[in-house]
Amino acid sequence: MNWGDRLFEDGIIKRHIYKEAFNKIKREDFLPHEMKKYSNADEPIPLFLDQTQTAPHMDAIFMEEALINEEDKVLEVGTGSGYLTALLAEVSKKVISIEFFKELSHFARRNLEKYHFRNLDLIVADFYKLCMKLKFDKIIITAAVPEIPWFIQDMISPDGITIFPLGRSIPQKLIRLKNGKIENLGPVYFVNIIH
Q1: Predicted TM-score (pTM) of this structure
Q2: What are the chain's domains?
């Protein structure tokens, strides 16, 4: 299945660069063998360690709402299987992706090696204990945070955008944070961030 075509037809993807990325990066390349048969389902798919791979429409929403472009340096929190990481690397200048679980980061690295990206780095770390001097244009957090992580303001460039699910219980909210302004993009459901 070409996810780019489907998401474009459904009106979730609006930019052709995203459509091309979703068509090129195959979701099944980022799933455990026994779960590959579900790669055409637009829903989260279980991985391991109680983690999931986000539904493709949600990855598209992250990219569209963050306005990811070819000049962006992107911080992804929650590498997971590496699927969104690959999509981000395909459409941006640089991606640094953080994963709490070492086993999941190794799984993602093996998956990402299939695409030979040279513009991404994977880090195993606790996001809440991270000390980075880099500034990012976009930050995407792929697990629900209990409260707005204001410390990320030190990592975002002026006019940068941060997207993240907020809340420990349903309904969570998808939040866009830009220039200190909070925008609720609607209800979502994500696994909670681990730290």
Answers
A1: 0.95
A2: 3-37+44-188 (3.40.50.150)
